[in-house]
Amino acid sequence: MEKDEFFLKRIRELANLSYQRDIVTFSDFLNLNEQNMVNSLKSQLPGIVMESSGGYDNAERQMVAFHPDALAFTWEYPIDCLKIEPKAIKFSEDLTHRDYLGALLNLGVDRNVLGDILVQKNAAWFFSSNKMTDFFLKNMCRVRHTNILISKIENPDEFPRPELEAVSGTCASVRLDALIALAFKSSRSSMVPFIEGGHVFVNGKLITSNGYEPKDGDIISVRGKGRFIFDGVSHQTKKGRCSVRILRYI
Asked: Where is the RNA-binding S4 domain (predicted)?
């Protein structure tokens, strides 16, 4: 509880600083739970606009920007995208998200300066606070036993696109527990503890009701499991069940 109170105090300080000095202030990268706490403060911060970004569309870890509602100048998030690739593909290992994250944290940095890490074959991209870019460029040289090259991506068109896997199935109704069970190939009853335990977020908002009905396009995140996009109901079966489609982040 003390940790949460300290976090919310820091968020209020950033918002007040923005209002008093007529500037844009930024949080660190926030996880889903922290984003949910920030959103709960909106009504307590009149005159301040809160926006968020993780450097690319639908990022999970996001940085929140605070600015006065009548701000008269343009601004950008202090976020850079860096690419990691092996020096020699022939001698590279099959590296995972955990491997890349571990290599970054082993440099002695805090998790809050890092956004999402997107892993594809023989490469990974990660988003970071731009104040850390030079540090990573100079000090990141190996992931596990693989020697790597690291570079800053200047052109947004070269930013990575998350890979999605289409999953289809049927459920009695479009409920949160049913969709999560379908996405992660589990039973509805096994998903209930995740929902009631505060591990499920819809578009960054904490949801604790098993019967919550997501809307088309909602992004559903389950801590410890992954996330997916609810792509809607295609039709009803002869038995009255809903045929649904989801897009799961790989």
From this structure: 174-234
State how beta strands 164-171 and 114-120 pair.
Answer: unpaired
Write down which residue in 111, 140, 158 finishes a domain: 158
Q: What CATH number does residue 113 fall under?
A: 3.30.70.330
Read off the amino acid at residue 149: L
- How would you label 122-159 residue by residue, b for 16+ Cβ within 10 Å and e otherwise? ebbbbbbbeebbeebeeebeebeebebebeebeeeeee
Quote the CA–CA distance of 162 and 77 in Å, as a whole number: 20
Pick from 243, 241, 219: which is nearest to 230 by CA?
219
- Strands 146-153 and 25-30 turn out to be unpaired
Q: Kindly report, residue by residue over 21-67, the tens digit of the pLDDT.
A: 999 999 999 999 999 999 888 888 888 999 999 999 889 999 999 99
pTM of the model: 0.85
**Cα 151 to Cα 85, 184, 242, distances in angstroms:** 9, 34, 46
Domain of residue 10 covers: 2-68
Per residue in 72-112, pLDDT tens? Answer: 788 999 999 999 999 998 888 899 999 999 999 999 999 99
74 within a domain of the structure (yes/no)? no
